[in-house]
Amino acid sequence: MKITSVNNSLIEEILSLKETKMQKEKQSYIIEGIKMVNLALEKQVVETILVEKNLFEKYKHFLNVIEISDNVSKKLSDLKTNQGIFAVCKMQQKEDLDGNYLILDGIQDPGNLGTLIRSAFAFEFKNVICSNNCVSFYNPKVLRATQSNHFDLNLRNEDLSFFLDKLKQKNIIVVGTLLKEESNSLEKIKVNRIALILGNEGQGISKEISKKIDLNIKIKTNPDLESLNVAIAGSILMKDIYSMN
């Protein structure tokens, strides 16, 4: 099968998977690039592969491989220059994994979410749980920023208030970063598992969720610095917690 029209119904359906609503409805999302597609094949989450002619021979032995023209490739891609390969992937349904939790309350910037996912992988925060008003895990910019590390983590959207109550029942300490509250040292944490909460770029952690925090911590910085980007702050805190263990 070869598709040469950008108005093809299948292409239009695949393009719709860039929208959060359709991702949730179809439980699928689109990725692009040789590295990411190859990793998705290893993880066995690929439903359909779309490739230009120069790569078709390499991938034709997989099921559901479609050859596409250059103009279709440009339509599917979010990049000025693309590698001519895309895949539709099914979302992985994972239960909670052993390890710490990164809890994200209202993160809106795709680059921030992608960076935090990558850092979560680096520092073994194996569960990344977002509030329902976060940017999608499967936003193309988020996926690029993750550098494919999203395949190895438990990524879920949850009602954070209810979810944090469940974590507390498991004796998991909820750690937050409230600027106006008294802060403590990370060294006070003497537990095996931690849930680190980070808030929205502009508003911080919501009032409802801030009430769930057991321990408030701060990062020591130059006193003349107003604030750190949430992705940088979160990465530093995850690294510090990882180093303690």
Automatic annotation (TrEMBL):
CDD domains xref list: SpoU-like_rRNA-MTase
A GO cellular component entry from the record: cytoplasm
A Pfam family: MRM3-like_sub_bind
Keywords: Methyltransferase, Transferase
Claim: Transferase is one of the keywords in the record: yes
A Gene Ontology BP annotation from the UniProt entry: methylation
Stretches assigned to the RNA 2-O ribose methyltransferase substrate binding domain: 30-95
The organism's place on the tree of life at top rank: Bacteria
GO molecular function, one term: RNA methyltransferase activity
InterPro entries xref list: Alpha/beta_knot_MTases, MRM3-like_sub_bind, Ribosomal_eL30-like_sf, rRNA_Methyltransferase, SpoU_MeTrfase, SpoU_subst-bd, tRNA_m1G_MTases_N
Entry's family note: Belongs to the class IV-like SAM-binding methyltransferase superfamily. RNA methyltransferase TrmH family.
Listed name of the protein: RNA methyltransferase, TrmH family
Taxonomic source organism: Spiroplasma diminutum CUAS-1
Lineage of the species this protein comes from: Bacteria, Bacillati, Mycoplasmatota, Mollicutes, Entomoplasmatales
